[in-house]
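Side project, low priority. Logging it here so it doesn't get lost.
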Amino acid sequence: MSTRYLISNARYLVTVNENNEILENTSLLIEDGKISAINPLKLDLSGLEVIDGSQLLVMPGLVNSHTHLAMTLLRGWAEGVDLQGFLEKVWVAEAAIMDPATCALGAELGAAEALLSGTTTTLDMYFHPESTHAAAAKVGLRHVTGPIFFDKPSIDGLTWDERVTAAHRWPQFLEEVGGPFIPTFLMPHSVYTDSLEHLHEVSSIASELSARIHLHVSETEAENALALELYGRTPTELCLDTGILNSPTTFGHAVHLSQSDIDIAVTKGASVSHCPGSNLKLSSGIADITNYMKQGIVVGLGTDSCSSSNDLNMWAVMRLSANLVSLKHGAQNVDLAHLLRCATVEGAKALGLEDRIGSIEVGKEADLITIDLRALHLTPVHNVLALLFYAVDKSDVKDVWVNGRRVVKNRELINVKSDELRARVNERVHTLH
């Protein structure tokens, strides 16, 4: 398999660099896992695969900053319910089938779906992370995950002490699996499933390991009300009190942040993963990301799980995000250039990866996708950003590279046989019915 690629004369090169440049009729060289040149003047042709880019748009791979990949196996399982009803239905199904092997299968399916739709990096929170990470990395995804923390054993059966032991082993495990670089993350589920004492302990482990933290925060008004009832503090304030925010932290959802919460997030450098599809479907509300970003919070975009938003389509998330800004703040205040950054380099920043991925710049790792512009629904092109937000969909993704390795070629996965994967999934989930 070639490790050197030249995308020659790309019709559009959407860089998402500091100036949000969109270049035309531009060539891109990929070598040794990185973007080595833009419009190279001299080329060593040995081992070089040349791809005609004249009908292609090239851009950074999308970053899904909050999801639960293994829950692809529960797509459509909990419908017509709010978050509480969703959790009640899903937790029963999870307890029935989600052992390590099944979590690996779900993560494999989720990684395949993500890559085919142009997502190259996911921040994935789920049980049995050793199994899910190995499976997703095998497919070729840059799969950011980490040990999960619940007070109770939950479906994985782990005691608290076992969770702590797993956390200390995690960096070594990442070295053993290899694959694209990912930062070390710890993932306490939320302030309503982890006691304050345990959150303190997670914060101490994170400091010891120089780890980042990801958890659900203020997804619903009911979550906020419960925290205020039990502790007289908001979930964000509890994260501050327990030391969670002493480590770089990504809030999943963060639909209902107060002004005090926003101030804390800005001061402590916490970021937000905006999941509008899931939030609307579960009646959780609409996060005012325009306000968050205006005040200095880094915002990434996410799908949440396939059992709450039913797919891993980041193009749908991008479109919905833009339309919700228009609804709340007026069409004239929809900044597509910045929202594209939320789906790429700002999402990477929320994960601590902005120096490696998220934009097309020489020296960065080659996490890239191509969009086939020959489709009638992408014709003509008057405005490239409008095309990306309001016309492009997952089926338009043609090729995908992660860390310079081609993992999707002409809309086909390279590391996984789709028919065989489909058969394994259907065989496993039939016991639920």
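Brief comment: DSSP finds 15 helices and 18 strands in the chain.
Revisit when time allows.
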